[in-house]
Specification:
- The chain contains five helices and no strands.
- It has a single domain, classed as Methane Monooxygenase Hydroxylase, Chain G, domain 1.
- By secondary structure, the chain is mostly helical.
Length: about 120
Amino acid sequence: MLQDYAPVLLHFLIVTGLAAAIIGLSAVVGPRLRNAVKLAPYECGIAPVGTARERFSVKFYLVAMLFILFDVEVIFFFPWAIVFRELGWFGFIEMGTYVGILMAGYIYVWKKGALDWNR
C-alpha cells in the first residue's frame, strides 16, 4: 500500500529540493545593493505618498468582508445548478427562498450605506 504513495513522496522531495536550490542560488548569486529607491515600498509604479504605515478606513475592511460573505454565499448556486432537475419544484422554491434572504441582506447593507464610498 505504501508503494501507491511513492510518486507523491518523490514529487514532494523534488519540489522541496528545487525550491531550496532556487532560494539558495538567489542568495548566493543575487546582488546585495541597498539604496533608498530599492528599500522604498512599491505601489504599482506610482511614487509613494506618505508613509507605509498609513491607516485604512474601516469602510475598506467592511466592504472586503461583505464581498467575501456574499461571494461565499453565491458558491452555493453551483451544486444547486448541477442537481436542479432532480430537485424539481421543491429545490426551486428552496433556492428562491435562499435568494430572497440573500437579497434582503444585500438590500439591508445597501440601505445602511455600507457600500457608499462618498460618506
